[in-house]
Q: What sequence folds into this?
């Protein structure tokens, strides 16, 4: 509590009293006006207004003082040694956490690239083997070319090329078996 | 007029009494208050010291973690590189296997050689992609068995010990899968 409670209560009480006084003065001014006493009502009205204003001004100033005091204490607290140390500790903790995460993700990345490299090796090998198989099929086809009609030969050759390009292992193997049975 | 004066005096009296009481209370509790303040300051100091100690410790830990992570990552990288190298060698060995079986069985159809090679590669990939060690070992044993069988077939045929046109034992091993 930046402002002591009794002090705040006192201020509020004074402000309320001033307000009541202002109302009383204004009412009396009204009364004087009704009694048709010249000169005095205007003065009374001014006095009442001044009291009313001072009551509000008092409340306002107290509020402003309260807020500024709060701000100052908050600032002082923010820059206090304890808070600074605490912030530094939090920062370090966050950094530690960050390092841990970074480590995990780096590991993941290495793993990923490793896997990609391996897959690429496997694909190259697969392609080479398929090429060899396709060559063998070509050779077989050439050998039985005289026994085949031209369209069948062309069709088989096209199938061979297509399956090789599609890297379709099963289809190439069936094609080979088909050619073997044709002989 | 008198009553109003009396009232004002009474009010003042009350005010003074309250002040007096306040003063009495303060003098009576001065020691305790001082003690409390002292304790609070002490607690604050202790907390600060503790925070400082923790901060230093954490910084140290971070440095340790950093170096540990770096070394671990470097090790992991080398291991991965070695893995790739091993895989390459395995692939080369499988190619060699295919060539050797083709060299032994001169009339072996390419499709059969391809199937043998493909099966070996499948076993190799199974071994490589196995999650736990036991499974990996199991697949490795399978692969080694298969390769041994293929070599055995090739050797027997080359030595003239078998007259089969195809490496039957290898093919039966494939068909069993």
A:
């Amino acid at each position: 509590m930046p402002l002591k409670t009794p002090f705040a209560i006192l201020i509020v009480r004074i402000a309320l009293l001033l307000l009541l006084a202002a109302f009383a003065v204004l009412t009396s001014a009204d009364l004087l006006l009704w009694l048709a006493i010249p000169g005095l009502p205007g003065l009374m009205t001014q006095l009442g207004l001044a009291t009313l204003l001072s009551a509000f001004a008092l409340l306002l100033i107290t509020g402003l003082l309260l807020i500024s005091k709060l701000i100052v204490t908050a600032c002082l607290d923010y820059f206090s040694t304890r808070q600074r140390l605490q912030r530094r500790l939090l920062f370090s903790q966050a950094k530690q956490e960050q390092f841990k995460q970074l480590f995990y993700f780096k590991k993941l990345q290495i793993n990923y690239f490793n896997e990609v490299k391996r897959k690429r090796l496997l694909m190259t090998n697969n392609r080479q083997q398929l090429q060899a198989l396709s060559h063998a099929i070509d050779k077989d086809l050439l050998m039985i070319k005289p026994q085949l009609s031209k369209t069948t030969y062309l069709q088989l050759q096209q199938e061979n090329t297509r399956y090789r390009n599609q890297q379709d292992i099963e289809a190439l193997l069936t094609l080979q078996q088909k050619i073997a049975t044709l002989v | 007029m008198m009553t109003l004066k009396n009232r004002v005096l009474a009010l003042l009296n009350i005010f003074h009494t309250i002040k007096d009481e306040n003063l009495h209370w303060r003098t009576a509790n001065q020691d305790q208050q001082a003690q409390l303040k002292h304790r609070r300051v002490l607690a604050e100091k202790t907390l600060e010291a503790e925070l400082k100690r923790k901060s230093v410790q954490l910084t140290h830990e971070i440095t340790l973690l950093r170096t540990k992570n770096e070394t671990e990552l470097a090790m992991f990288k080398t291991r991965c590189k070695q893995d790739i190298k091993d895989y390459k060698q395995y692939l080369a060995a499988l190619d060699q296997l295919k060539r050797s079986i083709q060299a032994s069985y001169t009339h072996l159809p390419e499709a059969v050689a391809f199937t043998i090679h493909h099966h070996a590669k499948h076993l190799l990939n199974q071994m490589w992609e196995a999650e736990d060690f036991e499974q990996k070992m199991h697949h490795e044993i399978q692969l080694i068995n298969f390769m041994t069988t293929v070599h055995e077939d090739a050797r027997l045929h080359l030595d003239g010990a078998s007259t089969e046109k195809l490496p039957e034992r290898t093919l039966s091993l494939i068909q069993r899968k």
User: Anything to note?
Assistant: Chain B has four helices and no strands. The two ends of chain B are 121 Å apart (CA to CA).
